[in-house]
Backbone:
């Protein structure tokens, strides 16, 4: 799986300098995609699992949270799980996330993702805390 990705990078480096082999771990692609997605206006937060939530509360920021990268024979498939802010146009924000991830990946690694799938798993309301305070009274 990862060998097909590495071979394309290896051919690029051999043509230019011939200095050696470049390998990029899937975790690096997750971090790049996670940062690129969270930069888009309208994205409230990325969805993580329980372990990443505990680690984040202890002070370590997990930039790959909410991103799953799959390296296959066909190419790179990226799944992004995010929570949007209330009131934004979901299709527009999703398109911006896809564009931002593709551009960041191309600029940093010279790789192109074959698929960037956006999964909206929730909506964040701005006045969510205010509503819960009124319910208690």
Residues:
């Amino acid at each position: 799986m990862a060998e097909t990705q590495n071979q394309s990078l290896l051919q690029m480096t051999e043509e230019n300098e011939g200095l050696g082999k470049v390998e990029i771990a899937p975790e690096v692609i997750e971090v790049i995609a996670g940062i690129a997605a969270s930069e888009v206006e309208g994205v409230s937060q990325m969805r993580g699992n329980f372990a990443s939530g505990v680690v984040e509360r202890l002070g370590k920021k997990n930039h790959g949270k909410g991103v799953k990268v799959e390296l296959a024979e066909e190419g790179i498939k990226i799944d992004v799980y995010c929570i949007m802010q209330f009131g934004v146009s979901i299709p527009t924000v999703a398109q911006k996330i896809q564009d931002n991830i593709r551009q960041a990946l191309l600029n940093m690694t010279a790789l192109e993702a074959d698929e960037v799938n956006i999964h909206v798993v929730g909506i964040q309301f701005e006045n969510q805390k205010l509503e819960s305070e009124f319910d208690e009274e």
Summary: The first helix runs from residue 2 to 16. The chain has five helices and four strands. Residues 1-15, 49-56, 130-134 have pLDDT under 50 and may be disordered.
